[in-house]
Amino acid sequence: MTTAHFTLFDTPIGTCSLVWKGDKVVGLRLPEASPAATRARIERRWLDAGEQAPPPAMQAVIDRVLKLLAGEKIDLGDVPLDFGESPDFHKRAYAVARTIPAGQTMTYGEIAKRLGEPHESREVGQAMGKNPIAIIMPCHRVLGADGKMGGFSANGGVATKRRILEIEGAAAVSAGPLFAGHDQRRG
Q1: Could you say which of 30, 77, 112, 139 is the most buried, measured as most Cβ atoms within 10 Å of its Cβ?
Q2: Catalytically annotated residue among 79, 93, 135, 139
Q3: What is the CATH number of domain 88-168?
Q4: What is the rounded CA–CA span in Å between residue 147 and residue 126?
Q5: pTM score of the predicted model
Q6: 16 is known as an active-site residue
Q7: Nearest C-alpha neighbor of 180 from the set 150, 148, 141
Q8: CATH number of 4-68, picked from 3.30.160, 3.90.550, 3.40.50, 3.90.75
């Protein structure tokens, strides 16, 4: 069994953390109230994780996340992720969400439909709420019906979600729905 490692890094939204095992990312946590709180959360979630400087491959991931959070249209879809023991439905929902480009959004209902489970939008919402790899698995790009922000489990809640979407240049973040490329009347 590979040991988890983590590092903290400063971003425009606060101090985030990247957690990896071997060559795969297993966690990216958004900022807590302080760097110490971010570190403590990592140590609670990944009991065996040791803090260290990131190896070159993980530093490259951090650099790409930083570019995204600086407003560049960066695609993180090729970053190798490991969702561990997450339920299969969650992993399938994550695979769909990873296809949403920066600056665009999709609804929970649209993901459920793409999974062939059109009545499971709440389950998609639960999967997004349990996403351990924020930003790289862009749960922030998934909205409720009619473009409503819905919940966001990271520290700062919906304000954090809105801030990331604003940085990415998502359409009409403060003016209304954040839809790109689909009929706004569908959920």
Answers
A1: 139
A2: 139
A3: 1.10.10.10
A4: 17
A5: 0.86
A6: no
A7: 141
A8: 3.30.160
